[in-house]
Amino acid sequence: MTNDKNRLTTSSGAPVGDNQNSITAGQRGPVLIQDVHLLEKLAHFNRERVPERVVHAKGAGAHGVFEVTNDVSKYTKAAFLSEVGKQTPMFIRFSTVAGELGSADTVRDPRGYAVKFYTEEGNYDLVGNNTPVFFIRDAIKFPDFIHTQKRHPQTHLKNPNAVWDFWSLSPESLHQVTILFSDRGIPATYRHMHGFGSHTFKWVNAEGEAVWVKYHFKTNQGIQNLDVKLAEKLAGENPDYHTEDLFNAIKQGDFPSWTLYVQIMPLEDAQTYRFDPFDVTKVWSQKDYPLIEVGVMTLNRNPENYFAEVEQATFSPGNFVPGIEASPDKMLQGRLFAYSDAHRYRVGANHNTLPINRPIAEVNNNQRDGFMRGDGNGGASVYYEPNSYGGPAESPQHKISPFEVTGYADSVAYDHDDHYTQAGDLYRLLSDEERTRLVENIVNAMKPVEKDEIKLRQIEHFYKADPEYGTRVAEGLGLAVPQGGN
Q1: Which of 118, 131, 325, 444 has the lowest tally of Cβ within 10 angstroms?
Q2: Does domain 32-154+187-361 sit in CATH 3.30.2020.10?
Q3: 339 is in an annotated binding site
Q4: Which residue has the higher pLDDT, 39 or 238?
Q5: Annotated active-site positions, please?
């Protein structure tokens, strides 16, 4: 019997053959439910913290309305987007990612951007961030990534060694790391930042024609960010600064708004586009796929009770409505399971019956019982399907748009590994002053890292994105650019 402490295993002790890629049906997926290692990682990860959210624990929310301003019915049959002037009530939750429930608002961290649309066809949740990309592109790596952002199991302190070790070994993170340490890494308020669906989704119109789509919420207040020193000062003096700002703005009638735009890609373009369009660490060029206006979201009402509405709000990217579907994005595919599973654990199996989550559409299903069932539990109605007693039945016209699946089931990586072009393009778009602040932020964050090999490995990534980028970080850390980066 072997006793190899360096061998990664499942909780039952079986060795793990691939911890980087989910098992998919061919190159493009979808992810297979037979990937028990993936499901075990995600399910266990969702149960690691009680009772606050595992990620996005600290947040603020508000009610509002979304109004369609442009006809997009040729792209999607979603009823809430069906005509200009149509209004849909919605709720949004902004959040930081890594910190605990009592952490400061003004830390350098991505911001969660979760929107729930209460449509006549059911709730539609768009659960993204204030960045168009993410650190990783496969959900199998998500528990590991978030562990690096949490506290060391011995010291209970934040651990820059883990943070930069993981990033340096995961070059796909470079694009998001560059955004995070830029000026946009600390928004001035929740009102002064954009929001993104981040993933690629599918829109389907009434004729069954499909396109790929990305969402962009552009703030109508303008982009504003916090100076590092001011952010640190506010973190000590008013750790709830963003929460307070949002509440007071709405209370005073200064209702923040965002204009929603989408990028539309024909299905066939996904086969030939120069970046994998389903890779969430990449963006689509707006020159290739221009922004198309959809509507305006306005926040006009504060919660009456934070716990009942903000803390108990549950969002899942798997909450679709007819006309909006998933894509083969591996990170999205994992989230379709993980988010609802987290809510079933954190809030309970009946979380969707709570007022803040309850659809305005009539709910007819055969889900019964469970903890804290607060409604009629289905009464005496039929509790199975198919049935001969007039109970709710499936509606074939609402089946998903079919898509072709090919290839061998295997743990398959994305077939594009250019992690440097877009990060380099972003660096070169910045002004001289913005580049200086970016490098200073990175250098200050990397200084506490104990191992030079981690620093050097990360510097090599910066250098591959842009030689000046890597050289300046290396100089700031008193190191030379590794030979592999030249």
Answers
A1: 444
A2: no
A3: yes
A4: 238
A5: 56, 129
